[in-house]
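Need tokens for this chain, all 163 residues.
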Amino acid sequence: MINISSLSNNIKIYKLDIDKIDLIKSLWEGLRDHHHDHTTYFAERYRKITFEKRKEALLAKTKHGRLNIDVAEETDQNIIVGYCVSSIVNETEGIIGEIDSIYINNHYRKLGIGDKLMNTALDWLESEKAVEKRIVVAQGNESVFDFYRKYGFYQLHYILQQK
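Here are the structure tokens for all 163 residues:
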């Protein structure tokens, strides 16, 4: 683990080795539960998703692209309190970057951790020469639109799925 920067004396942001992805499991489950609790139509879908399935999908991206995991650690307690997973894939239209998943533990929100994780991930996507950057927002989580707009992300499509 390489320390990238410090937000304060007790929060550090660093890149997590991909083989240590299981360290974000409980936070990812918090995000899944958040989606489950806020979706209007697809609660059952979120109930069925496991970390193992999501991990498999994320790691599959490394076969034809690259995966990056940035974490925020509370160093006094040695616990990861937030993470951001981003990826790069090569498609016919060029190198596509995606913020795949970002989540901050409720007790650590409003401290600038989300901002630091987003900027770190976006810097990585830039360094990887992404020509397009995407974020998929789950239905029911529209309250995050203002957060993403700060980084230049806006709604492009609405994808409807039959229930």
